[in-house]
Amino acid sequence: MQSNPQLQTKVNNHSNSAPLTIQDRNNLCHILGHFDTSTSPVILSNKLEAVITQYNLGNGDACALLRAWLPSQLAAQLRAPVGTHKGVSPDIDANWGNSGDRLKELQYVMCCRDARGTSAIANASLKEGDDPFLFCTEYLALYKITYNCPNMSPDDADFWYSMANKCTLIDSSTRITLRNTSSYTNFVNILKDWFKDSKHKNATHNNISILTESQGKQRFLRRCFKCGKCGHIMRECV
Questions:
Q1: Within 13 A of 88's CA, how many CA atoms are on the CB side?
Q2: What distance in Å separates the CA atoms of residue 200 and residue 194, rounded to the nearest whole number?
Q3: pLDDT tens digits, residue range 207-219?
Q4: For residues 170 and 26, what is the distance between their CA atoms, to the nearest angstrom?
């Protein structure tokens, strides 16, 4: 985990009475990296608290950072004093949860997932011959059940990222494009185009193989100059 000296200075000079800006939170989320839902809540908590300690964040900013880092469907399940403040004013740092509260909420939101769905999510992958539209449709349904977010929009960026990671069949550059697409529809269309290109390349390769094999057979239809028969050449004649 690399620190950002410029951000460090800015945060250290930041007054606890004023919350971090959206850009500051985004920069800290970038330092934390992608939120990996397959990782233990304790490990994720340790990672989060290390950044909170390094940048000397108060509880208000720390809870805001957790909400920003979490996938939106999990962040929506956070309870007070982490999801919302517990006092009269949200500006008072004591009104927000501490490190123990944040760990407790991480464990809570990550254990709310359906166990069978979690296993299915872990084992899901795009396979050769899969229909791109059906794969995306089924994964969307599975994702909503697993993370208990029936009203989630298919255009949720966290969902795209998760689904793109399941497309290990495709090349890395296309997978990066999928992670940064602009909509669910575009995601499906990119997958469709990739499969079309892949089929075309395979068909071309197969045609070349057939042609080469055919030419190979024709090579042995030449007439032997010794006995006059077809199917072998003179040095093979007995």
A1: 0
A2: 10
A3: 444 444 444 444 4
A4: 29
